Amino acid sequence: MTTLQDYLNNKYQTTQEKEAVKEIILSDISELLEGGELDLKEFTNLEKMEVDQSALNSPITKINSLTNLKELILPKTQPDSDEDKKLFTDLGIEDKTIHISQQRTVKEIKRLTSEFSNTQNKKINLHFATNKSPQTKLDNNKEGISEENNGEWDIYLQLERKDKKGNFAPNLVLWTFCRELTAIKHGNYDKEPLFWQHFNQELEWIKDNLSKLYKKEWELLLNPATFPHELLETSLFACYFPKLEDGVELTTSQSIIKPEIIDNTWPKIKQEIINLTSQELNKATTDDEKERLWIKLMLEYNENSKEWTIKVNYHKQSPIQSKIKELTTTTLLENEIELLKQQKSQLPTPEKMAQLEQEKEQLEKQLQGGTNLVEENKKLKEEIQALYRIIKEADEAERQKKLVLSELIQTPKQTNEAIKRLLKKTIQEWREYFESEDPDIAEKKFILGLSFKDPELRRKGKEILGYIIEAHENGNYRELVERWQKEGKNGGEYDVEIDFDENLQKIKDLLQVLEYQNSVKNN
Q1: CA angle (363 as vertex; 358, 364 as ends), nearest 5
Q2: What is the pTM of this model?
Q3: Which of 71, 139, 353, 455 pairs as cysteine with 48 (C-beta 3.0–4.6 A)?
Q4: Taken in order 187, 191, 194, 199, is the CA torsion positive or negative?
């Protein structure tokens, strides 16, 4: 069985992906996982983690390297009721090791239905379809349907929904469920163009009422810029009036949209076209006039160009076709102009440009004079490090004496306690530096600020902090020194560049004292 560690390593495969993660809220697990020990040392910026324990076959026993983690949530879910167990068996999803995600989706939809029914004062019955338990109402590849029956409503939902990778996709089921709730509340989408405005409102209702487990993934669906197009089809954004019959002759108008303006452009075009269609529908008196209002809006993403395309299909005799063309063109241009204004506002002013030009000329004169600034900077850095080493070497003997005098170290036990105190102090100071929101923290903690000014050293510092935390817990100080020194450039030997506040050298000194004490004790 796959472990939670394996699952995370597979989902975030590269160091860059792991470092970019700030929150892990597991809502898309499609299989039961083993818990066990969890090592998060590569997730250096992780601040929050939430794992529904119902997704685990065994508990999490230990979590290592919680460098920046501020919030850890391991909610316990209520055990399945007898009613749920029977439903899962009838649907053929009773095996948690395979169908945990389907089970949780069914329970979430049942909970949302109960809330919706109470607020709308409507009785709603749910019917799920699976391979084992198909629903004839969903023949011909229907994803969902709702029907009124003697004052009550029945919603039929296809549970066999897959993403582009072939995995069960809870959001597809929830999206269809939201569409049917909108139909119950506002009327059928085949007969009312304004349905899609109401649908957007219900999407927000779902977002506000979803459990935490699903909320973050759901929010990504609501805007094109965050939509997971690598997993789900952008056809979810499509809206139409009515649902078009095969063979209808349509004209297509399309516009390519930059990703920077898609979130502003798409909602405006969709809203205006829906309003135009609704207004014309109110004027139409014959079936032919209504037929000419057939329309469909689609949003597509091009993986190669990284651009969006808005397509509008409409009847070749549509009375609003000129307005559609004008709307798609003017909206696009307006948003592109606004984008250009924003970009222009970030450019230097004429005064700043003149200053930059002056600085450029001065730099060119220096370079023409034979001064290699890059080489000078490199030499200066080497000289500073050399001086640093000289100072440290000259101070080494005195430091050894101070360690013994200040700590009153006389026994191996006292030395171990001194190392543990030093590690605790280092953890507190480094964490305070990395987690501080104080803009002046680098000045207040000057030594750390100087060391961690370099982004690569800052990254290494966070990784080493994870090693320090582990050593503080397990007492393996020799391993800590080895792992710490491997982060340097001297092949596992001591490197002053990564001894950010001299604590690495202090630990090494204390270990030498410990080795001496043990040798004396053994003799």
Answers
A1: 100
A2: 0.60
A3: 71
A4: positive
